[in-house]
Design a protein that fits this description.
Blueprint lengths: L1 H26 L4 E4 L6 E2 L5 E4 L8 E4 L15 E5 L6 E6 L5 E9 L10 E6 L2 E7 L8 E9 L6 E8 L4 E3 L1 E6 L12 E10 L29 E3 L16 H4 L1 E4 L3 E7 L1 H7 L2 E8 L12 E6 L2 E8 L5 E8 L6 E8 L8 E2 L1 E9 L7 H14 L17 E3 L7 E5 L21 E3 L20 E3 L6 E2 L13 E3 L4 E5 L10 E3 L5 E3 L23 H36 L5 E2 L6 E2 L17 E2 L3 E3 L2 H7 L6 E4 L4 E6 L5 E6 L7 H12 L10 E7 L2 E7 L21 H20 L5 E2 L8 E3 L5 E3 L6 E2 L10 E2 L11 H6 L1 E2 L1 H17 L16 H10 L17 H14 L10 H15 L68 E4 L20
Parallel strand pairs: 1-3, 26-27, 27-28, 28-30, 29-31, 30-32, 31-33, 37-41
Antiparallel strand pairs: 1-13, 2-3, 4-5, 5-12, 6-11, 7-10, 7-13, 8-9, 8-11, 10-14, 14-24, 15-16, 16-23, 17-22, 17-49, 18-21, 18-24, 19-20, 19-22, 25-26, 34-35, 36-37, 38-39, 39-40, 40-42, 41-42, 43-46, 44-45, 47-48
Helix pairs in contact: 8-10, 8-13, 10-12, 12-13
Length: about 1000
């Protein structure tokens, strides 16, 4: 009975706790709030849980402040800080993150007199990018400063490093917050950009209203109440913010607004600091009708930037609208000036509910060479250096490293003298092939010297005054650049290799009592991994004898192993017939000793290459193709024939042409790589044949042919609607993304084109013909890519690749952008009909039309009027981002997949959305389904346009209606001012960011 009661009623005691935990999970998904310097976790008045910073950083000193903070937020959390003496180059928080996710990062600072002298100067960095410089003086001692950034993680990143870099004085921080944003929010940050918030305004709010933040804003953005003298209005009714409003302002912000009978304006002075760091800006304006208006009234707003019209005829409705502008350049005044006027056709004046301004800055997309970084992680683990976090070389190097200045930095010097290190030197240090200096002296390192024969650039090796043991490797003599080899005062034993006695090498070995001359027969003692001296503790005779016994035992064991291996080899060779064999590890095809290439009689047709590709006989291929009766294609490898295997499987058979100058290379490459490459959006290799000088590849058959055959040309197989085209683009992008990121080694296709995208019976797209691909170069290739003969197809070639003979993954992205334009325009990349008024080059023609905001003129006539405008704009802007002249400005395939996913979702809606705004610079031509009203569509561009600034002669945006794509940085709206035409200008603060900005 007692147990039964507990089972029934114990749940009621646990229920409140369970509900509390559930509420916490539901209201704070993914939030990370760090109370820097705090000793215990706590929960603030908003219900946000704060944790100590101990799990995220292992340097710095906790400090409690003695004075209260004057701040609207986080009063308790601002009472502690962690400060970092200038005793090392940087101190980094490592924040756990999710791959392919956009985050808001907010850091708050209150000096509060934690040090007597207030002259602190330090920098902030996020991952490899230095983002801001901070200078504290007595003027700012009690000011609370908040810096907010929007960044994105990549496919290969599951953490974000936030670093403080002292500049001769201590750095400090009070709070650090990480907030995940929804898919599609501020996604321009994926294009090698990050955003810094300059201001975020809740327009129309009363001065007494507190700023809006969590939980009203589920992403915990902070919307400040402006102090400008502009008439405001409010409503108690919630404003509908649909999913088409990509940056998702909270309803609480949209329920107030500035209004005027005629016009008002809003300006932001940037100041010297920001102008020096930032060339382009990202601006958001949010609109919604919140007043009770007559059915006959209309509110149509004309928006101007620096005196030029940039969005006329915006019809405001009760649903939220978003007008955005990215890559916006300022004029010589250094101000962003926006004015809002009533359109002549409007019966009501302008309105503005909320606004955001961000600095859009270039992100450093490089990082320390992966190989070097991985070795350093092992080194740190082995030797107790785990407190060093962040990128080893960027934006500043660890104190004990020197790095070169390459795009992908290599570590050239490790100097860890007198660091009290323990543990062993990892063998993987031999992978740091750019090393010139390795100093690990004056520590407590044990173990043997690893094989360093790959460090051909090594000049100095200092290992003196440690506890290392074992012999001195003779391979050290093979290092051509070695000038200093200091080994003194260790526990090394055995003979000193005679080859080390050479001119130009300073060899120091004193203090190793068990070392002897190369002519002497002295044993090498066992390697000491414990750090103790017990190995050498006994008498010389006993230790020497132990070494001899161990040496004999090892020798006998090696001899036995060799004999066994020889017996096994002879047995296998006895049964092996001359044939083509397969190395199952590498997939490489090997010829027999005669040099001929015959089918293996033992392996037979069912044998597998790399456990995947089947080995066919030439006879099987000829039967399947009816002696090559039906040719279905022609590629660089040779002709492609239709075939049917004995089990009924349809196949495409590629036969190496006799004229192919690279047939053998391509064949070996395709067989070895493709046998291990499997993805639903890649054409699968089913088998191969190499017999009688024939080199043949057998692929799965794609019955619907190539994408090109469905877009244009005399071989048209059927037309595709826009939804089908977007789905095909997305599937092909996923296949290419797999090649770039998930294959080992990663693969560059080198010949992406519409002819190499094949379609199944149900129009599933698969990328083909990547057998001529080459895997990417090692990261230490200072060229940044694979240097090779330029290969590809005219019209699709990356101009950087063509000009500099340097292949990168972004070369494939360029080619894919051309394919996207083919899908939009329904025409080939090069038009040889010079009588046609359209331009010869598809990319140039599309760019010129889109720069004139004329999307409709480039759309394939077959799909005119039968597409979702948002989806079409998304793909058009993505295509133009992909064909940017500079590879650094192009998205990667992860970003391409994300953008196409959004485009596919937009196209999936059967009805055109209403109440959302379109491309700010795009003026409809009447070709759209709903006529000329620009308020009926929106775009979500994630990539830059080719036009980078608004000039005095231009009335359109620098990009085609691009949204502000990146989470907002956070500061008090200092330097922002606005007025009605009759007001006196409020100068405000000029925002000269030579010092931190107060919250």
């Amino acid at each position: 009975m007692r147990n039964r009661w507990a089972g029934q009623h114990g749940l009621w005691f646990a229920l409140p706790l369970l509900l509390s935990l559930l509420n916490s999970v539901l209201t704070q998904p993914g939030f990370l709030s760090i109370d820097c310097g705090a000793k215990t976790s706590n929960t603030d008045s908003l219900g946000i849980e704060w944790t100590t910073d101990a799990p995220y950083i292992s340097t710095g000193i906790n400090q409690i402040l003695n004075r209260p903070a004057t701040s609207d937020f986080n009063q308790e959390q601002l009472q502690t800080l962690r400060y970092f003496p200038a005793n090392r180059s940087k101190h980094c928080y490592i924040l756990p993150a999710t791959k392919n996710t956009t985050y808001l990062i907010r850091a708050s600072f209150l000096h509060g007199g934690f040090q007597p002298t207030v002259d602190n100067s330090f920098s902030l960095s996020i991952d490899s990018s230095s983002v801001d410089d901070l200078v504290w003086t007595d003027t700012y001692i009690d000011g609370v400063f908040a810096f907010e950034y929007v960044v994105a993680t990549s496919e290969n990143t599951d953490s974000i490093s936030f670093c403080l870099i002292p500049k001769g004085t201590a750095a400090f921080i009070n709070t650090l917050e990480l907030r995940p944003l929804a898919v599609g929010m501020y996604d321009s940050v994926y294009n090698a950009k990050y955003l810094k918030l300059l201001t975020r305004l809740n327009c129309g709010a009363a001065l007494s209203d507190p700023p809006v933040r969590y939980p009203d804003d589920s992403y915990d953005r902070i919307w400040y109440t402006p102090t400008f003298k502009i008439t405001g209005t409010k409503t108690e009714e919630k404003v509908l913010v649909s999913d088409y409003i990509f940056d998702r302002p909270p309803s609480a912000v949209m329920q107030s607004a500035w209004v005027s009978s005629e016009s008002f304006w809003w300006s932001y002075d940037l100041g010297e600091y920001e102008l020096a760091l930032t060339k382009t800006y990202y601006v958001n304006h949010f609109f919604a009708e919140i007043q009770n208006v007559k059915a006959t009234d209309t509110r149509i707003v004309d928006i101007f930037f620096n005196g030029e019209s940039y969005y006329p005829n915006l019809t405001v409705t009760s649903d939220a609208h978003e007008i955005f502008l990215k890559h916006l350049s300022v004029d010589s005044t250094g101000s962003l000036n926006f004015s809002f006027s009533a359109n002549p056709k409007s019966t009501l004046g302008p309105i503005l509910n909320a606004g955001e301004i961000y600095a859009s800055r270039d992100k450093v997309i490089s990082s320390t060479n992966d190989q070097d970084a991985n070795v350093l992680e092992v080194l740190k683990t082995n030797m107790g250096l785990s407190s060093w976090a962040g990128d080893p070389c960027l934006p500043v190097a660890f104190d004990w490293l020197t790095c070169d200045k390459g795009f992908t930095p290599r570590v050239t010097s490790i100097k860890l003298s007198n660091y009290n290190l323990t543990g062993t030197i990892p063998q993987s240090i031999a992978d740091m092939t750019a090393l010139t200096d390795l100093w690990l002296d004056n520590n407590k390192i044990v173990g043997a010297i690893p094989d360093l024969s790959t460090l051909t650039k090594l000049k100095t090796l200092h290992l003196q005054n440690n506890r290392m043991s074992g012999g001195i490797p003779s391979t050290l003599a093979s290092l051509p650049s070695l000038k200093e080899l200091f080994l003194q005062n260790n526990q090394f034993s055995g003979p000193i290799p005679a080859s080390l006695n050479r001119n130009g090498l300073d060899l120091q070995t004193s203090g190793n009592v068990k070392l002897c001359a190369s002519t002497e027969n002295c044993p090498i003692l066992p390697v000491d991994l414990s750090g103790s001296n017990s190995t050498l503790g006994g008498g010389g005779r006993k230790s020497s004898g132990s070494g001899v016994v161990i040496g004999i035992a090892v020798g006998v064991a090696v001899a036995v192993i060799i004999v066994i291996c020889l017996l096994v080899w002879c047995y296998c060779k006895r049964w092996k017939k001359p044939s083509t064999t397969t190395d199952t590890q590498s997939g490489a095809v090997q010829r027999n000793q005669t040099g001929s290439s015959t089918a293996s009689s033992t392996a037979g047709p069912g044998a597998l290459l790399g456990k995947q590709a089947r080995s066919f006989t030439l006879h099987e291929v000829e039967v399947a193709t009816h002696n090559y009766k039906t040719m279905i294609g022609q590629g660089g490898f040779g002709p492609v024939y239709y075939g049917r295997l004995a089990d009924g499987t349809e196949v495409a058979v590629k036969v190496n042409s006799e004229t192919s100058s690279q047939g053998t290379t391509e064949f070996l490459n395709e067989v070895s790589l493709l046998s291990r490459v499997h993805h639903k959006n890649l054409v699968s290799l089913l088998g191969y044949c190499e017999e009688n000088q024939q080199q043949i590849l057998v692929y799965e058959y794609m019955p619907n042919g190539t994408l090109r055959e469905h877009l244009y040309g005399k071989d048209m197989k059927g037309r595709l609607n826009w939804r089908e085209r977007v789905d095909i683009a997305l599937n092909a992008a996923k296949g290419l993304e797999y090649l770039h990121n998930d294959c080992i080694p990663r693969i560059i296709h080198r010949d992406i084109k519409s002819n190499n995208i094949l379609l199944s019976l149900k129009l599933l797209a698969k990328v083909a013909d990547f057998g001529i691909s080459r895997h990417t170069a090692e990261e230490d290739d200072t060229s940044g890519g694979v240097s090779t003969i330029v290969r590809g197809t005219t019209g699709y070639l990356d101009p950087e690749y063509y000009a500099h003979n340097r292949l990168t993954h972004k070369s494939d992205v360029y080619s894919f952008g051309v394919v996207l334009l083919e899908m939009i325009c329904g025409r080939p990349p090069n038009n040889n009909n010079h009588s046609d008024p359209r331009q010869h080059n598809l990319v140039d023609w599309a760019r010129s039309q889109l720069n004139s905001n004329d999307l409709s003129s480039i759309i394939d006539p077959y799909i005119k009027g039968m597409y979702n405008v948002e989806s079409m704009w998304k793909v058009a802007e993505l295509a133009m981002g992909c064909v940017e002249p500079s590879g650094a400005n192009r998205p990667d395939m992860n970003q391409v997949v994300r953008a196409l996913t959004v485009a596919a979702e937009l196209e999936g809606h059967t009805e055109r959305p209403t109440g959302v705004t379109g491309p700010a610079s795009y003026q409809p031509t009447g070709d759209t389904a709903t006529g000329d009203n620009p308020s009926t569509f929106n775009t979500d561009s994630s990539y830059p346009s080719t036009q980078e600034s608004v000039t005095s002669s231009s009335n359109h945006l620098p990009s085609w209606g691009t949204r502000p794509d990146g989470p907002p940085p956070l500061f008090t709206p200092q330097g922002t001012f606005a007025r009605l035409p009759s007001d006196t200008r409020n100068s405000g603060d000029n925002n000269s960011w030579l010092s931190p900005q107060p919250r």
